């Protein structure tokens, strides 16, 4: 069956897991948090083994069958975490997913997450998931829905705010839920036990160094290497953690790769991605003229190496490598000496 995010969360809290779940949509923060909730519930119920499958364009779909048939040496329950960025498994992938759903193994849950979704993505594979499990389409919030979402999230963090302060924050983040989430987390630390008003919110914004990851990504995609590197230096000097900010850079690189794969259908692809605000489309058009699909694939691979380096494997200066990646994003034609082949 198909359901809403709120109903999905209620179902998770209430009982056993279904054999299959599909969580898909362009609102990446909501997709990520819904997937995190499912992973957490699976752990509570004893699904102690998780196998991650990244279904990119060259994915071998036999791996899904292998994962569903393999027996765990450490746990009797298993979660298969399949990432399908485009939301389009293709003919072979669709058949593999249908096969899984028609003979779902016991004590195994398949979770598919996708960073894109529309009626055009639906097919036999998604219908098969709905027959035995749950599909959760995650639609972007409408502008008029944003203040309500911000108010609810503030309350969940123990933060009280006036309606005027909520409206001001909604206006500031311009539809970017990840930016809103990070701002709320910061405000909850600074204003716990008080009621946040417009004056306090404006003071908090004024104290912000403005070196944030969203401006970093936009500066790099827009070709302003100097500004992007200056922001990296500011983030590092402020003691920011590298791994969380790298997550947003990864999202933007995956978006660039999807757009680069659209070929002559770029206008339709941009509309489908619902880039907000619309003025950011110009940044992506500029980047796509400068770098081809192969370039964005190399940038993604470099981001993966930086993530591993930040976690201690292999050794190296992850911040220095981030600088190289940012420069490569801003100047694709000069990327040969910046990215590892």
From TrEMBL:
Top class in the EC scheme: transferase
Record flagged with keyword Phosphoprotein: no
Name of protein: DNA polymerase III subunit delta
Domain of life (superkingdom): Bacteria
Ranges of residues in domain DNA polymerase III subunit delta C-terminal: 214-326
Keyword Nucleotidyltransferase in record: yes
Catalytic activity, EC: 2.7.7.7
All copies of domain DNA polymerase III delta N-terminal, residue ranges: 21-128
Similarity comment: Belongs to the DNA polymerase HolA subunit family.
Keywords: DNA replication, DNA-directed DNA polymerase, Nucleotidyltransferase, Transferase
Gene designation: holA
Catalytic activity entry: DNA(n) + a 2'-deoxyribonucleoside 5'-triphosphate = DNA(n+1) + diphosphate
């Amino acid at each position: 069956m198909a359901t809403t995010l709120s109903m999905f969360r209620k179902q998770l809290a209430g009982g056993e897991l279904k054999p299959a779940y599909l969580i898909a949509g362009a609102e990446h923060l909501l997709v990520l948090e819904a997937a995190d909730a499912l992973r957490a519930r699976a752990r509570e119920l004893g699904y102690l083994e998780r196998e991650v499958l990244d279904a990119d364009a060259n994915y071998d779909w036999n791996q899904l069958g292998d994962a569903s048939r393999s027996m765990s040496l450490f746990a009797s329950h298993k979660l298969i975490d399949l990432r399908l960025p485009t939301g389009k498994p293709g003919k072979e992938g669709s058949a593999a997913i249908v096969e899984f759903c028609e003979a779902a193994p016991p004590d195994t849950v398949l979770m598919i997450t996708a960073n894109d979704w529309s009626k055009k993505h639906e097919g036999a594979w998604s219908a098969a998931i709905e027959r035995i499990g749950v599909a959760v389409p995650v639609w972007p919030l409408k502008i008029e829905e944003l203040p309500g979402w911000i108010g609810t999230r503030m309350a969940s963090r123990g933060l009280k705010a006036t309606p005027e302060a909520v409206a001001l924050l909604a206006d500031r983040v311009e539809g970017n839920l990840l930016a809103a989430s990070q701002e709320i987390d910061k405000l909850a630390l600074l204003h716990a036990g008080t009621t946040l008003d417009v004056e306090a919110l404006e003071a908090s914004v004024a104290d912000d160094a403005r070196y944030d990851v969203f401006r970093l990504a936009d500066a790099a995609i827009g070709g302003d290497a100097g500004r992007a590197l200056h922001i990296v230096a500011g983030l590092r000097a402020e003691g920011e953690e590298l791994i969380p900010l790298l997550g947003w850079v990864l999202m933007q690189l995956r978006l660039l790769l999807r757009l680069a794969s659209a070929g002559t259908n770029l206008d339709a692809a941009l509309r489908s991605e619902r880039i907000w605000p619309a003025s950011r489309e110009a940044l992506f058009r500029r980047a796509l003229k400068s770098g081809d699909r192969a370039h964005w694939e190399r940038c993604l691979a470099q981001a993966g190496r930086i993530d591993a380096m930040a976690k201690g494997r292999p050794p190296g200066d992850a911040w220095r490598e981030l600088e190289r990646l940012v420069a490569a994003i801003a100047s694709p034609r000069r990327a040969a000496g910046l990215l590892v082949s």
